[in-house]
Amino acid sequence: MKDKRRWLAEDYREATERHPERGYPFRNLSDLPIDPIYTHQDLEGFDPETQLAYPGEYPFTRGVQTTMYRGKLWTMRMFAGLGTA
């Protein structure tokens, strides 16, 4: 599994060059900053090899896009009636 710093410096940087983050700060309701990614380095007692992957990588536990919602907004076609149940 990649190191968090390496992922931010390589994959995330490349993705944000294509689709830059939106211009406002990402913060929660308590006004705390929200990082682009949280990894096993942020959690105790967690096995990242079996329970987690990076965004845009198999098994897609964090979604299919590397930058997720921070760059380009998603479309939820299945909720818009453009797919079948």
Structural overview:
- The protein has helices at 4-18, 48-51.
- With 85 residues, it is mainly α.
- The chain is globular and about 35 Å long.
- It starts with a helix and ends in a 34-residue tail after the last helix.
- The mean pLDDT is 79.
Topology:
Elements: H1 4-18, H2 48-51
Give the tally of structural domains: 1
> End-to-end span in angstroms?
35 Å
Strand content: under 5%
Outline the biggest β-sheet. none
Structural descriptors:
single chain; 85 residues; 22% helix; globular
Q: How would you summarize what this structure contains?
A:
Helix content is 22%, strand content 0%. The protein is mainly alpha-helical.
